[in-house]
Design brief:
Belongs to the UPF0145 family. The chain is an alpha+beta fold. 30% of the residues lie in helices and 29% in strands.
């Protein structure tokens, strides 16, 4: 079990987790799952333990892109990735403190604060759960609780199909798209025409984000990544600098010989 204090989890959070005492006669759990999600997670064989969260208020440094060049802004990419990792690690530490096997329904968001245009809070929040089946190992290959951003319904379907989440994986790329020169703008004025330099810039940025999410999945020894979302975020950088952010849930089969059963035909339903 990791030391939550060493991960930056505050003492107040430790006290809150200690008061939950899930499974004890006078204990209770907290959860942000909807009623339907809660019931499906219980039916999948998992007991909610408590709401867990991680936060990181991060100063995002400055990096200038060249006006007429497509380029990744690596300093900004690294800042956004590291800040999210800090929030995720603290959420996982809270789940570990509760003895959880995983965290479901994880939401990961970024909120720029009024402290300054370059200061943002990165927040990860989800519901820690414990498996009732003690014969299956649900933790990932790092002996950490799994994390998943799947809905309760999708989580239930995944488990029923014989798969387990191993962790949320993400890839990010902050990219500066070159400005067009005036002569190029005038040549294309009033015409339907592709702008190749813009197409290539956006293509390259998305590819970098996708390659990084796949690399994280391989490090977790996953079979694949489901529920992938690829978003384009402008934050406060202006129109020519944007973040491409990919996130999903890496999964593995529960058994090496796993196969998904074919659906059975039900005859006579059209009579």
């Amino acid at each position: 079990m990791t030391d939550p204090a060493a991960q930056g989890v505050p003492a107040d959070a430790m006290a809150r987790l200690a008061e939950l005492r899930p499974g004890e006669p006078d204990g209770l759990f907290t959860s942000d799952l909807s009623v339907n999600e809660f019931l499906l997670v219980r039916e999948a064989g998992f007991r909610p333990l408590g709401l867990v969260l991680g936060s990181s208020v991060y100063h995002v440094g400055v990096q200038l892109g060249r006006w007429g060049k497509n380029m990744e802004l690596e300093q900004l990419t690294n800042a956004l990735y590291h800040a999210r990792e800090l929030a995720m690690t603290r959420m996982e530490a809270e789940a570990d403190q509760l003895g959880a096997d995983g965290v479901v329904g994880v939401r990961l968001r970024v909120e720029f604060r009024e402290f300054g245009n370059d200061i943002a809070e990165f927040v990860a929040i989800g519901t820690a759960v414990k498996a009732e089946d003690k014969t299956t190992t649900w933790r990932n290959n790092r002996n950490q609780p799994f994390t998943s951003n799947l809905s309760g319904q999708d989580f239930w379907t995944l488990v029923q199909a014989g798969y387990a989440p191993v962790g949320m994986v993400m890839g990010t790329c902050v990219y500066h798209v070159a400005h067009r020169r005036m002569a190029a703008v005038l040549r294309s004025a009033g015409q339907n025409t592709e702008i190749p330099e813009f197409t290539q810039a956006l293509y390259d940025a998305r590819e970098l984000a996708m390659a990084r999410i796949q690399a994280e999945g391989r490090r977790l020894r996953a079979e694949g990544i489901v529920g992938v979302a690829l978003d384009q975020l402008h934050h406060r950088w202006g129109g020519h600098t944007m973040e491409f952010f990919a996130i999903g849930t890496a999964v593995r089969p529960l058994r090496d010989d796993h196969t998904i059963a074919k659906p059975q035909l039900v005859l006579g339903l059209d009579r």
